[in-house]
Design a protein that fits this description.
This protein has 127 residues and is mainly beta. It has one helix spanning 3-18; strands spanning 31-38, 53-58, 61-66, 72-79, 83-91, 96-100, 106-113, 119-126.
Amino acid sequence: MSKVIKCFILAITVIVGMTPPSSWANDPTPTVIVIKTTGENGLIPRSPAPIPLQGVVLGYSLYLTFFSDLGVVGVTLEEAAYGPVIHTVVDASLPYATIPFSGDAGDYTITFTLEDGVVYVGSFIKS
């Protein structure tokens, strides 16, 4: 089994183990955040490097997994109709981070900005 699949399974196991059932009573199904890298002018590079982070929405939280020490990462969550919902920083030298989230339905874009200026953008729909 590849390292990425093992990490994903570990992340889901940790997420389910850390989350009390009351926090996901309204949404028991995790939503995986599709994350892409952006290059110059917001374009996706032709041969992008592996994505060093992963995100899952479960109930009222965003669960992030970091596959390497990324330092301090700026996280911005925007809803298409309402604009920015969350703007925070996380310590990505740790393997996991949890960000509280309203859980409101919407079409979301999440942006991760690393200290060196590299940007990763993800999206998900919360119903």
